[in-house]
UniProtKB/TrEMBL annotation:
Superkingdom of origin organism: Bacteria
Domain VOC, chain residue ranges per copy: 2-130
CDD domains reported in the protein's UniProt record: VOC_like
InterPro entries: Glyas_Bleomycin-R_OHBP_Dase, Glyas_Fos-R_dOase_dom, VOC_core
Protein name (database record): VOC family protein
Length: 131
């Protein structure tokens, strides 16, 4: 088995695309209309464009359990997913300068350093540096 796509529920695909490309530095890979306003919309790391895709999946309309789960994670401060970075402090400073809001500043935890930010689309996202 191989991981080719991970899914992140987003409240607004256009807003998510702007955030994930303009702020986080991902590049758009696929943008395929699926009907009813939804799209198969993926982004990838600029440095690994053939790597794992992040599917910016519309938070299911009319399926309250998914919305409840996403909101509960966000309200509890629990990250929906994490992205690895080479230097958490450097990435934190870059993102803060772009207006990204962090709920957890760079913090060493054993063999990793982490920070957590709001992706403006309903999710906390953690960045991780392996020490």
């Amino acid at each position: 088995m191989k991981v080719r796509v991970i899914s992140i529920p987003v409240l607004d695909q256009d807003k998510a695309l702007a955030f994930y490309t303009d702020k986080l530095g991902f590049v758009k890979k696929h943008d395929i209309p699926l009907g009813e306003g939804g799209r198969w919309l993926t982004v990838v790391a600029k440095e690994e464009q053939e790597g794992t895709e992040v599917l910016l999946e519309p938070s299911p309309h009319g399926f309250e359990p998914a919305k409840t789960y996403q909101k509960a994670l966000f309200d509890a401060g629990i990250p929906y997913t994490q992205f690895n970075v080479d230097d958490v402090r450097e990435e934190y400073e870059r993102l803060v300068n772009l207006g990204v809001t962090f709920s957890v500043k760079p913090t060493a935890m054993g063999t990793v350093k982490i920070a957590v930010f709001d992706d403006t689309c309903g999710n906390n996202i953690q960045i991780v540096e392996l020490l």
